[in-house]
Structures are given as structure tokens and as C-alpha cells.
Amino acid sequence: MDVYIITGASRGLGEALAKKLLAKTNVLFCVSRTDNPALRQMAEARQCPLRCIAYDLREVEGLEELMRGIFAEIALLHPVHGITLINNAGMLQPVKRMENATASELIGNLQVNLAAPMVLSALFARFSRQLSVQHRMIVNISSGAGKNPYYGWAAYCASKAGMDMFTRVMGLEESAQPLPVKVVSIAPGVVDTAMQEEIRKASREDFIQVDRFRELKESGSLLNPDAAAEKILEIVARPDVNNGSVLDVRDFL
């Protein structure tokens, strides 16, 4: 069987990824602030073991206890062929000029978007190395905002740029190990999720490019979450994707 740990799986792209992975041969641990009863029902119908864990990723210091508990359950599963961590959870706010952002807003963003994925990845590598598992992988869901600046998105852009760089560094480190964890970062493109709704509601004063994102919705240019999830899983499974790769779904369309 294959085990997947997915953050932010209660809605949007995370939910779509979880749905794609619901199968008899998989076991899913979904970590999010809110429950998803529909996902539970679908897992039951597909006879896929699913564990939904309520957790706020801003509580970074509690992540070790969280992961220790998850891996205690994984250790009881046999046989396990592969374990994958998907760092999908993310937040856009604050959307405003830097001088108007508060310390708590900036810290909260960086805790969810960067600190939590880094801590989870470190714990994943440490705990999974103690198991006899053939395949171990970390998939970081990034964004084009990690490469391109957006007015009013300083925290989001910085956190995604940080995610891409920590992917490169961890991939470099793992490549030197005898049994490496494969670490990749992938930007899903502009996906039709609640985050996009949030973007379209922003004022022009806070986000001067808001009209472009409204036009993407009106023109039907947003990528369906299910299609994005399917493409992400297809790309990261490719044998020619190197450790530490920073990818973009749009390069494969």
C-alpha cells in the first residue's frame, strides 16, 4: 500500500488531490483546520482508509507531536511501499502594501506557508527514515507568485519563493543520502479555488492587478481543481523529475 499525508485537504486543490488518491491500495492522513464529511463518505465508498486530523498549521511547535502520532499509525501498516507528504495548505492574506501589514498578519502567513512545510518536511524525512519503505517523497505545492512579484502579496510571494528554495536545498541534501527522500515543488497554475475568490474580492488599492484575475474567471481561463490535481500527480510521478526540482504545471500542458 501507499500512504499519503496531505495538508489543507478540506477544500480546493487539497481536496481534489485527496479525492484522486482515494483507493483501496492507499491510506490517507488529511490534516486541515476543518473537517470534510463528503471526503469521508467518498473514502468509505471506495474502501480507502482515511484519517482526518483537525490542526491549525500556525501552531508550528506542535507539529512534531502531530507527525509522531501519524507515523506511529503508519508503523502498524504492512506492507507499505511508499510514503508521500503533500504540503498543500496555504494562505494568501495579508493582501495589502507592506507598510500596512501587521506583524501578526505577516507571521501567520509565514507560519502556514513556509515554516509549517519546512518543519513537516524535516519531521517526515526523520521519521520515515526509520521505516523500511522503498519510496519516500515530499511534494510542495508552490505558486508562480514565488517567481513573480505581485503588488500587495509580499508575504505570499516571499513564502512561496522560500518554499521553492527550501525544496532545492533539501533535494540537494537528500541526493547525498543512501536512501534519499525525493523532494519537488510544483506550481499548479491559476486554479479555480476559494483562494481565487479571495483574490477577486480584493480592492484595487490593495491589489492593483485584481482586474486581471477577475478577467481570468470571466473568460473561463481558470484550471479546474480536479484537472490540476490529476496533472500534479502525473508530473511528480515521472522518473525524469530530479530531486530538488521546482516545476510548473503549465510547462507540461
Question: How would you characterize the overall build of this protein?
Answer:
The relative contact order is 0.14. The chain has a single domain, classed as NAD(P)-binding Rossmann-like Domain (Rossmann fold). The chain is 42% helix and 16% strand. The chain has eight helices and seven strands; from the N terminus they run E-H-E-H-E-H-E-H-E-H-E-H-H-H-E. Strands 3-2-1-4-5-6-7 form a seven-stranded parallel β-sheet, sandwiched between helices. With 253 residues, the protein is an alpha/beta fold. Helix 5 links the parallel strand 5 (135-141) and strand 6. Helix 1 (12-21) packs across helix 8 (225-236), helix 3 packs parallel to helix 4 and helix 4 runs parallel beside helix 5 (154-175).
Which short descriptors sum up this protein?
253 residues, seven-stranded parallel sheet, 7 strands, Rossmann fold, oxidoreductase, globular, alpha/beta, NADP
